[in-house]
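Researcher: Next entry in the queue.
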Amino acid sequence: MGSLTTPSSDRRATVSLFSRLRTAQGQADPFDIYSELRSRGGVSPAPWGGHLVTSFDACDRILRSSDWLEPDKSWRDRQGPRTRWSAPSSREIGNTMTALNPPEHTRVRRAAGGFDRTTIQRLGRTVSKITDGLLDSLTERLRGGEEETDFAALVSEELPIATIGAWLGLPSADWPRLRELTHEQVFTQELLPSASQLARSDTAMAELRSYFTALIRDRRDHLGDDPVSRWIETWDAMEPDRDKADEAVYSLVLFVLLAALETTSTMLSTTALLLVEEPTRWDLLAARPDLVPAFVEETLRYDPPVHVISRVAAKAGVLDGFEVGADDMVHLMVGAAHRDPAKHPDPERFDPHRKVVPHLAFSGGIHYCLGAPLARLEAHTLLRQLVARLPRLTLVRRPPRAPRVAFRRLLSLDVALA
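Model: Structure for this entry, 418 residues:
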């Protein structure tokens, strides 16, 4: 049975690996570092406490088990006033669905509804129209004399905010700022955020709260046929205290915006990167558009938008030979688990012909991503239209990454006509 402590040499080695992971080179290509972590075993002690999990099987079991919980508001409060969990942005995230456990999670998820077939069909027309316009702009630039253009800025970052902004009924003039604030707030959900990163998240979250509380006040006075209006009516029926009802709607709108933007834009950029960096992949999809869904799923396995998911133990127990105390945290290294050779043959190879691609990119269990159908819709639509409408694009240079470990993001994706 393993202990909660680790020999100093192992601790130093793990600290060294994470130091490398936090460099620009490590963030650009963390997979060799993940391989070294996996070589220490599917579960290993984290130097700062808790455990790192790199085995696909263990990650999958934890996500599906009721013995492992989200680090919710009460857990965050128990960590004390001088920890990252006491930051205003962390406390704000603690009120959203992403950090709720049953029974509150069940109640909120039921109130939120979901992206059912009818909603997805309706959104499909919106996504197709938006994608058409974005690819028109991309084509005009590349054929209008520009040697290269930034696919991420023109397409990957624009499609999710335009889709969710239109669905929620948010003024288009507000979309650029909301997208910017979303990128800033994500640091509070990072693996090991610095004090300056937390401060940026705190500032962004305060502005998001101000924006959405004003939006809800206005929408309450002018109820319409939109999700925010429906959530107001739903929570009014569930919660007699109007202030509490509005707070619940705020947490839900915030959750939907954050979930719909950050990870989806990264997924779209990564999918486009894998498409344009290897000419045979573009030619394959152009000839076989039926492979688009498989291409997207393999992208989600190969380089998911979220590389780390954290959970806490509901009670003391044993995790693959290691003693775990109640409230102890585990970090599921999803990016490493997706390259676990015990789960995927030849895991370092990008292969859109894989028949079945189990992955954890959308989490699992009761916290399986509410917006997964919408994210897939956007990715499928973009890829199909891209290879059908444009001649082959090529990668101009390797894209830089945002300074993050858990939440991947390409800062740019410069492409040119081949």
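Model: Residues 357 and 398 are 26 Å apart (CA to CA).
Researcher: Noted, moving on.
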